[in-house]
Design a protein that fits this description.
By secondary structure, the chain is of the alpha+beta class. The protein has ten helices and seven strands. Helix 5 runs antiparallel to helix 6 and helix 6 runs parallel beside helix 10. The radius of gyration is 50 Å and the shape is rod-shaped. It starts with a helix and ends with a strand. The mean pLDDT is 78.
Length: 401
């Protein structure tokens, strides 16, 4: 019953109506009884007046005594053909009886009609809701998820409609996500094929040069083979980065979060780029007090190394890179600051997009390192932002607690 407020309302309304009609019956019966009393008393009054006229010597008290006498003498009435058990001498009472019977029958029929109307109306609305639900299910089967279900009451069928609506929203979201996934997969495959096409083309050209020129000197062959090896290495590296990013984006990797020394983590990243930094004579400095950062160590080394590598590649020769870190009650922060050409505003908006290459990107850049770094940081409950002004670029990473 708690899930049938509509039926509950009808039952309550029917009970109220029945109480009203029963009260009316009681009131009508009372009026009927009062009508009988009036008719009876009028007859007695007429009899008393006639006795007074016929027998003026009788006092009023004697007349009242005669009228109210309790002795039963039915023979007098029977002599005139009246049966005291079946015949009514006071005809007005018969008329009153018929009138009140008609009123009571009308009230009874009215009550029955109202209750019947309420019941039929409830069933009609229920049938309408069932038809709507059947239509909704049919539309869902046809993969039409653009449904409008306007239900505000708590009727059990309305609750069912609400649940169908929730399922519809879920199915629509799944369908939308499926379409987005298909578009994303299509775009990813296009990007990957584009990225792989360049080294593959170069490798094929070098191989064709070796095969088409059997008299090619060994020095040239060795040069082509080195280039083939370099392009193969680039392809291997690109595929590894794509696989890492793809696994992260589909949540196929479980992060092993532990307390790690921030100094050890940053020193590992510096070691990974030290050779590249030495080639440009770039000095990497750190500034901060050691603290424990809860994160996946290996993945964060990957992320911060990619950011630091980007900083080294875009720094001026003979410059320095500053890594600052600090900890507070809300978040842990790492800043990687390098000095080089500014990143344009147009590049800043897309710098973390997969395969995006800015105007200052190197020719052998894959455009995937910063996208991977951002994905890793966000998976470790972090956020990364970048700003670039006055030949100073700052990557700020915050890990929220």
């Amino acid at each position: 019953m708690e899930n049938r407020p509509g039926l509950k309302k009808i039952i309550i309304l029917s009970i109220i109506l029945n109480i009203i009609f029963v009260s009316l019956f009681i009131l009508i019966n009372k009026q009927e009884y009062m009508s009988y009393i009036r008719n009876y008393n009028n007859k007695i009054n007429i009899i008393c007046n006639n006795i007074k006229e016929k027998y003026p010597d009788l006092s009023d008290s004697e007349i009242i005594e005669i009228v109210t006498l309790n002795e039963d003498d039915s023979n007098f009435i029977r002599k005139y053909g009246y049966d005291l058990n079946n015949d009514n001498i006071i005809k007005e009472n018969d008329n009153s009886f018929i009138k009140y019977i008609i009123i009571e029958v009308v009230i009874f029929i009215l009550n029955l009609c109202i209750v019947l109307f309420l019941y039929l109306n409830h069933n009609r609305r229920k049938d309408k809701d069932i038809k709507e639900i059947i239509k909704l299910v049919d539309n869902i089967n046809k993969r039409n998820y653009n449904l409008d279900i306007d239900t505000l009451n708590e009727e059990e069928l309305s609750i069912l409609k609400d649940e169908i609506y929730k399922i519809t929203i879920m199915l629509r979201e799944q369908a939308d996500n499926s379409n987005k996934d298909k578009l994303y997969l299509k775009k990813s495959l296009e990007d990957i094929s584009h990225q792989l096409r360049t080294p593959l083309t170069a490798i094929l050209i070098y191989i064709d040069n070796i095969l088409d020129n059997p008299n090619l000197d060994n020095k040239k062959k060795e040069e082509f083979l080195r280039k083939i090896k370099r392009e193969s290495y680039n392809m291997k590296k690109l595929i590894e980065l794509i696989l890492k990013l793809s696994r992260l984006e589909v949540n196929a990797i479980s992060f092993d979060r532990k307390e790690n020394s921030i100094s050890n983590l940053i020193n590992s990243c510096i070691d990974n780029v030290s050779t590249l930094a030495d080639l440009k004579n770039i000095n990497i400095k750190t500034n901060g007090t050691d603290f424990l950062l809860k994160c996946d160590y290996s993945w964060e080394v990957e992320a911060l190394t990619n950011i630091l590598k980007n900083a080294v590649e875009h720094s001026f020769d003979d410059s320095e890179i500053l890594i600052c870190y600090e900890d507070n009650k809300i978040y842990s922060k790492i800043e990687i600051i390098n000095y080089g050409d500014n990143i344009s505003n147009s590049d800043l908006r897309h710098i973390f997009e997969r395969f995006y290459k800015g105007e200052n990107s190197k020719s052998d850049s894959f455009g995937i390192g910063l996208s991977l770094a951002k994905t890793i940081v966000e998976n470790d409950n972090g956020k990364i932002i970048v700003d670039s002004i006055n030949n100073k670029t700052t990557f700020t990473i915050r890990y929220y607690k």
